[in-house]
Design goal:
By secondary structure, this protein is mainly α. The chain has 21 helices and two strands. Helix 7 packs antiparallel against helix 8 and helix 20 packs across helix 21. It is globular. The termini are far apart.
Length: 509
């Protein structure tokens, strides 16, 4: 190989050096200026190499997707990504590549039959509705396919991608355990990073963002309270993600029979709760409570239901009806979630009242992809396009109208209800049922967060929680393998315990 390159260089003189320099310039341009036709053409060999690696090691591509999805906002905020490339493109390209690989490998690894479930049908209905929105011209601006597609892929298509990728690629017990462990590892890094922000400080890019874009919403009480955002784009997204993650891992911990999993997952859940409070996001606490409350119904255990109800009922009482811990700024902010006179809550009510007034004449909404940037000042719906939506549900309401938000809510209930039905009726293993229940409760927690904040379609939430819900539908297919795996692990665990007791008894003699 080296001899061939040397010979080519000698025969072609400066042309080889020139081509090498042009290729290096293309990569430099890609990193510093984003996409251009020149950069794409010259970096084509890297694209081919990436595709080859993905086909050869497809699970490596899946884990790359999960890792990039979780940290892309962090990379972007710290300016570690090439400029000019939409953050969603990294996810989307990997998801499409993984689906292409799955289709090509369908004969050797046929897992598409498990995709035919109620969640898929609900998603097809929602994606179909969003596709029809391309014809929506409520603002009288004509059809803008580019703007529509940019909005529709974030509002609908990325959910479908997440569903298909997760249910196809997490197809056995080993991969499921790996997924939970990788999720825990990424979450613990976020916990570490918020600790680092508190005790060591922000990176220069984070500090610049906090003192400019995030100043109004993240530096409160005359600068004495900072709402920390860790690896996420803002504190609300971080806090709600941590609440939903804590919900899942606490349920995983109390239902597993494997001790090392119980300790690690339980610790992950508790640390995520601590991190949640550092965000200063009031909704996050309610999301955590709701997620664990949903588990009361999925546990099918009176003992667990009683314990969970007492613990969180007691915590809710302390936060909502007492002044205990009032000296802590974060607790005071969390407590303000129950204050009906809270200023920020009133602003949201005023905004929603204004939206309701304008949206009456737009039953299909102002259109997906339409915002204040492309609605003229004299347009009837200009005001509607400029009102801050504050939440994902309000955002969908504005852009798809009463018809769209009704469709979205119905599809979400169908997806969650179907997953809960699987947990209650189709899974016999208590620990595997706990995995399914944890994923359902985390999804329910996230939906409440989306009602109060614009977080549902943000990174890493969409892939993490919609993809996680899709796994519930796949659990019955791997239950037999799961039971065998768990029995083997418990047997090893019991044997170690027996040997430890024998050694302890022998030392007493």
């Amino acid at each position: 190989m080296n001899k061939g390159i040397t010979t080519y260089t000698q025969e072609n003189g400066g042309r080889a050096i020139l081509l090498f320099l042009l290729f290096g310039l293309a990569i430099y341009q890609f990193v510093n200026a984003g996409f251009s036709a020149f950069a794409i053409v010259c970096s084509f060999p890297l694209i081919i190499l990436s595709v080859y690696v993905a086909f050869r090691y497809r699970m490596a591509a899946f884990w790359a997707l999960f890792f990039i999805n979780y940290f892309v906002q962090w990379f972007g905020k710290n300016q570690w990504l090439p400029s000019g490339i939409p953050m969603s493109m990294y996810n989307e390209m990997l998801e499409i590549l993984l689906l292409v690989i799955a289709i090509i490998d369908a004969r050797s690894t046929p897992h598409f039959e498990r995709t035919a479930n109620i969640m898929l049908y609900a998603l097809i209905a929602w994606c179909g509705f969003c596709t029809l929105q391309v014809l929506n011209d409520s603002c009288g601006l004509g059809m803008n396919v580019g703007a529509w597609y940019g909005g529709a892929r974030m509002m609908a298509f990325q959910i479908l991608y997440a569903f298909l990728v997760f249910i196809i690629y997490i197809d056995n017990t080993k991969t499921l355990i790996q997924y939970i462990m990788v999720w825990a590892g990424c979450s613990l890094f976020s916990v570490y990073w918020v600790w680092k922000q508190i005790h060591i400080g922000f990176t220069p890019a984070e500090g610049a963002w906090l003192n400019n874009v995030g100043y109004v919403t993240h530096i409160l009480q005359a600068g004495t309270l900072i709402r920390y955002f860790s690896t996420h784009n803002d504190a609300a997204n971080f806090g709600i993600c941590m609440a939903s993650t804590a919900t899942a891992f606490l349920i995983f911990a109390i239902t597993t029979k494997i001790k090392r999993h119980r300790y690690f997952w339980g610790l992950t859940g508790l640390l995520c709760i601590w991190a949640m409070f550092q965000s200063g996001t009031r909704t996050a606490m309610i999301c955590l409570v709701l997620g664990l409350f949903v588990y009361v119904f999925l546990s099918k255990s009176a003992k667990i239901a009683t314990v969970v109800s007492i613990i969180f009922g007691f915590c809710f009482f302390i936060i909502a009806f007492t002044n205990i811990g009032q000296g802590n700024q974060q607790i005071r902010r969390m407590r303000s979630a129950f204050d009906k006179s809270d200023a920020s809550a009133n602003v949201r009510d005023i905004n929603q009242a204004a939206i309701k007034k304008y949206i009456q004449d737009a039953p299909w909404g102002i259109g997906i992809g339409i915002d204040y940037g492309n609605v003229p000042a004299n347009n009837k719906y200009r005001k509607l396009s400029t009102i801050p939506p504050d939440s994902e549900y309000v955002f969908i309401w504005v852009h798809t109208g009463p018809i769209g938000i009704t469709t979205f809510i119905i599809t979400m209930f169908i997806m969650l209800g179907g997953a809960c039905w699987v947990v209650l009726t189709k899974i016999n293993s208590p620990s595997l049922r706990g995995i399914g229940a944890g994923l359902c409760c985390a999804f329910a927690s996230q939906q409440l967060g989306g009602y109060a904040n614009q977080v549902l379609m943000q990174f890493p939430n969409c892939l993490l929680f919609y993809g996680g819900l899709s796994l519930v539908y796949a659990l019955p297919y791997i239950e037999k393998e799961w039971v065998e795996y768990e029995a083997k692990e418990v047997a090893i665990q019991d044997e170690k315990k027996r040997l430890k007791l024998e050694k302890k008894k022998a030392s007493r003699v």
